[in-house]
Sequence to fold (175 residues):
Amino acid sequence: MNYDIAYFAQSAFPLVWIVVPAIGAFLRARHATSPQQRLEIWQRWWAIGAMGFGSLWMTVAFTAAPEVMATAIGFDRTPFMFEIAFANLGLAILGFRAASASARERITIGLGAGMFLWGAVIGHVYQWFANGDHAPGNTGGVLVTDILIPAVMIILAVKSRRLAATPQPAAELAA
Fold:
């Protein structure tokens, strides 16, 4: 196996969809005036940046450059790739919707995304070990994003529900 800078760059690229929203949320949340506001900022950045734009990118990549994506994942081009593109379009729409959703809806959106993305992780790991598929789109960053995008959305939404159920001091309610 010959790994080079191009391999590592391709393998790490999906991490952009979690790093950029995390940096954006961190920078924006520094100015939040309450824990609720801080949590809402994180949820919106995550929904729009990680799930929304990350999934939209996959839609575009699988429809506009199917040969490139086939090579990246270590498979021949198949009609199944078109289905993956539109499954990701569904996730993108859900991610954008989650930006203004309730905590309960965000949990549901995260769980729905998790069913698809965590299933994809199982498939990637199976291909990795059963068939030696070490293509940059099959291992590395894609595994991290497929696990974390729905997991973080669920965790943030659960925290939001718990925080909303906690009585707030009078000073915070006035703000």
